[in-house]
Amino acid sequence: MMGGVNIISMEKNMKNTISTLAATALLASSAAVSAAEVEVLHWWTSGGEAASVNYLKEKLSGAGVGWTDFAVAGGGGENAMTVLKSRAISGNPPTAAQIKGPSIQEWGDLGFLADIDGVAQANDWDNLLPAVVSDVMKHNGKYVAAPVNVHRVNWMWSNPEVYAYAGATIPTTWDDFMVQAKKLQNAGFIALAHGGQPWQDATVFEAVVLGVGGADYYNKAFVDLDMDALDSATTLKVFETFGNLRQFVDANSPGRDWNVATSMVIEGKAGSQIMGDWAKGEFKVAGKSVGTDYVCTAAPGTSGAHTFNIDSFAFFAQSDAASTEAQNVMAAEILGTDFQTVFNLNKGSIPARLGVSRAEFDTCAHDSMDAFVSASASGSLVPSFAHGMAMSSAVGGAVTDSATNFFNSDQSAADGVAQLVASIKAAM
Questions:
Q1: Bridge partners of 307?
Q2: What is the structure's pLDDT at 76?
Q3: The pLDDT value given to residue 11
Q4: Per-residue model confidence (pLDDT) at position 2
Q5: Residue 412 in 3-state DSSP?
Q6: Which of 89, 118, 375, 396 maximizes the CB count within 10 A of its CB?
């Protein structure tokens, strides 16, 4: 999936220690992985996600490369990153790991990542990838990671039969969401299917930030971290709107996995879910059809924007030729048109590389592709801060903690703003 927050919040006094372990890690990693084999850490364990990663295993098998799976459950990736940090510190990182956004730079700065620029140049990645994607994959100008997809995070997934039964319409603004959600509740449905986990709280919060404030405010406050934008009337309105959503979430929400919440929409127990397009993979696994069984619309107030989350594998440096070659094969396969097509059809996302045929993709994917292009031109293409694309892991963790603490308490909107501003200042 998705996600990842608070990825490698390492204290400053640990950095030198970790850096000195890099050389040890290179030796240990080659011992842990045999020739022509990769060990891959990821957190893709739900139905649609598992189908996606299994296809990569098949592609590598066909190329003569074995796959040792190191899956760590937890939709936002926090658990996986904790394990990765532990293994890196002990000198035994995997061959490749699912790492995203600014955290790629953090790991690169620590000296762990492999230079796969030779593979990238041989396969013309600079021309195959949009700049917003390729820039994230590089450290000091060299490719160290390969992107598998581009997710649109600002989606709302709805069950049209539930809405019709309740006499409600699928909302396009947050004000209307409150009205329609009441109708769903009065008809006996859960209005908002939600999993009470920090990264899921942050995902909904992010949608409210974009829907209430727009892309310019989003960038100033949550990308540039402009304190005037953060400590503003707009942020107060964001927290008021976010707080109003509490009443529409059921009491069993705490601890619920995201795909279980998606199942509530699939099964007609809930009206909508605010979640990235990896949720579409769950509808596909359940045999549901877009437009009849479910509807994908932009989260309220965000129809012209695209909040992107790029899943990628970062590669850890190897000390022997066989392991390096296996790693290079994996990197090349990831950007192949066949893999990019099948993986993203299963995952619900869109290809990271340009020039992939749209023919097999559904209308939700076409909408995402169109929104990605148009939002890029209009300035409404924004990185997902809830999924590790916009800020350092420390600041991202502060934002997530503030959002989840607010949503799971009776804190006032004003107190929520104050906590957010103070937390971000402390983490910067």
A1: 382
A2: 65
A3: 40
A4: 46
A5: coil
A6: 396
Q: State how far the Cα of 342 lies from the Cα of 340, in Å rounded to an integer.
A: 6
Q: How far apart are the C-alpha atoms of 86 and 376, rounded to whole Å? A: 37
User: What letter represents residue 391's amino acid?
Assistant: M
pLDDT digits (tens, 9 = 90+) for 126-169: 999 998 899 999 999 999 999 999 999 999 999 999 999 999 99
The per-residue pLDDT for range 248-291, each reduced to its tens digit, is: 999 999 999 999 999 999 999 999 999 999 999 899 889 999 99
| Domain architecture of the chain: domains with CATH | 36-151+309-363 (3.40.190.10), 155-308+386-427 (3.40.190.10)
Is residue 318 a contact partner of residue 324, using CB atoms and an 8 Å limit?
yes
Residue the block writes with tokens 């600041």:
395
Please tell me the total number of residues recorded for the chain in this structure: 428
More confident position, 32 or 407: 407
User: If we measure between CA atoms, which residue out of 290, 308, 312 comes closest to residue 368?
Assistant: 308
At residue 75, the pLDDT reads: 63
What is the DSSP secondary structure assignment for residue 358, as one 8-state letter?
-
Q: Which residue bears the tokens 């959600």?
A: 181
- β-partners of residue 98 are 313
- Specify whether the CB–CB gap between 96 and 330 falls below 8 A: yes
CA-CA distances (angstroms) from residue 252 to 190, 198, 255, 261, 404? Answer: 11, 15, 8, 10, 16
> What secondary structure does DSSP assign to 22-57, as a single string?
HHHHHHHHHHHS-TTEEEEEE---SHHHHHHHHHHH
CA atoms of 313 and 59, how far apart (whole Å)? 15
**Rounded to 5, what percent of the chain is helix, strand, coil?**
55, 15, 35
- Mind listing the pLDDT tens digit for each residue in 160-217? 999 999 999 999 999 999 999 999 999 999 999 999 999 999 999 999 999 999 999 9
Q: What is the pLDDT of residue 51?
A: 83
